[in-house]
Specification:
This protein is an alpha+beta fold. It has one domain (about 5-155): Methyltransferase, Cobalt-precorrin-4 Transmethylase, Domain 2. The chain has helices at about 5-10, 30-40, 70-90, 145-155, and strands spanning about 20-25, 50-55, 55-60, 60, 95-100, 105-110, 120-125, 130-135, 135-140, 140-145. The strands form four sheets. It has a four-stranded mixed beta sheet. Strands 3-4 form a two-stranded antiparallel sheet. It is globular.
Length: about 170
Amino acid sequence: MSLPINIDQLINGQTVEWERIEFKEGWNDIDILQTICAFANDFSNLGGGYIIIGIAEKDGRPILPPKGLNVAEADKIQKALLNLVKQRIKPEYTPYVEPISFQKKLILVIWCPGGQERPYEVPENFIKGANRHYFIRKFNNTVRPNKTEKEELLRFSAVPYDDRINHKYGA
């Protein structure tokens, strides 16, 4: 399934609000896992978000031209990401990943639509027995919700099956 968005418009902030985009110069597994969780929880009902690996950021804006990734890095990240989401996100959630050539550099775009089984939680670190937590997006930050936000997340996450979005419809 290809991404439902124009990559130039996404990176230049013409399509999606900045709180729905996270730029990463490279792979940071725990940070990216927590951001995937936050976008999947879609606390503000904005439609999830996008993580772009291969583009650094400064003050929330992309640094262009992108650093990019080599093919081996992109392949390694995709394999690591698959294992990471399968083992660490509960309940199960899998984002969409697409390698894209942007300004003659390879980048990975991870699209994380709001999940159907939310709320999602992930471990705070990869130490065996680590506590699991919910994460949400607040402005352009991935954070743990406070008590009130956690209660609200649990309350509005109960979406009846017939009301759930089918992201693959028409694909």
